[in-house]
Amino acid sequence: MPELPEVETIVRALRSELVGREIVSADLLWTRTLASPSPGEFEKQIIGRSFVQIGRRAKYLNLELSALAGSVAFNLLIHLRMSGDLSLKTGADSLGKHDRLRLGLSDGRILVFNDTRKFGRVWLVADADEVTGSLGPEPLDPSFTAQLLYERLHGHRRQMKPLLLDQGFLAGLGNIYTDEALHLSGVHPLRLSDTIHMDEAEKLFHAIRTVLQTGIDHNGASFDWVYRGGSFQNYFRVYGRTGQACPLCGTLIQRMVVGQRGTHFCPTCQVI
């Protein structure tokens, strides 16, 4: 599943291509892709609007759209989930087998949401908080601090790996970047959050920011058959490296299942 760095990479690639373009047609090819509103209302509300800004909230793409006469501005929110992909095609490109939504643009190109597994979702809403309001802090936002992380950790008594994956606790981290951040900070995935000391919270804070920013710098990590083009997978410390040497101490990386998620760690560097 694309995580914050992969979504940020897509946002940056689309920003210069979409801003100012008008949507002239909407073809919804699988109705369950659309979470809100109804298909008829979606087509009525989206055609004629132009892209004003392309942004991100956690793992959601937020495509801000202009207002129409007598209507407020809208946000087109897209969550890629397991296999979603958002790309621009030319009018001559044939319909893809797994295309779920195609938006025709004023320059003749088509913005295509392709989703093999059909888990991705699209919302067209006037207020983005209707969808993203329950998300936790953005880890790269200036308002997110080590002190805030420490306080939030001590507001729970949960194992670290599931807590960091909880989008209501902290927005944007997934399996890859959580494993990487925990290893970089030396925190065991099973450690209880309210046992983390302030100095450990500071290390974890910087580790989270470091792995996310490094992921963005490398255009994310390429994985599965969906997201391609990134190279962060070449710099993984522990994720997917079961049985290989820890880059810090040489101990073999181990894998266990935590909260139904495969979890990679070093038993020497990360002691519970």
Structural features, described:
This protein has 272 residues and is α+β, with helices and mostly antiparallel strands. The protein has two domains: 4-132, MutM-like, N-terminal (N-terminal domain of MutM-like DNA repair proteins, Alpha-Beta Barrel), CATH 3.20.190.10; 146-265, Helicase, Ruva Protein, domain 3 (Orthogonal Bundle), CATH 1.10.8.50. The chain has helices spanning 4-18, 39-46, 129-132, 146-153, 160-165, 175-185, 198-217, and strands spanning 23-28, 34-36, 51-57, 60-65, 74-79, 84-89, 99-105, 110-115, 121-125, 254-258, 261-265. Strands 2-9-5-4-3 form a five-stranded mixed sheet. Helix 1 (4-18) packs across helix 7 (198-217) and helix 4 crosses helix 7 (198-217). The protein starts with a helix and ends in a 7-residue tail after the last strand.
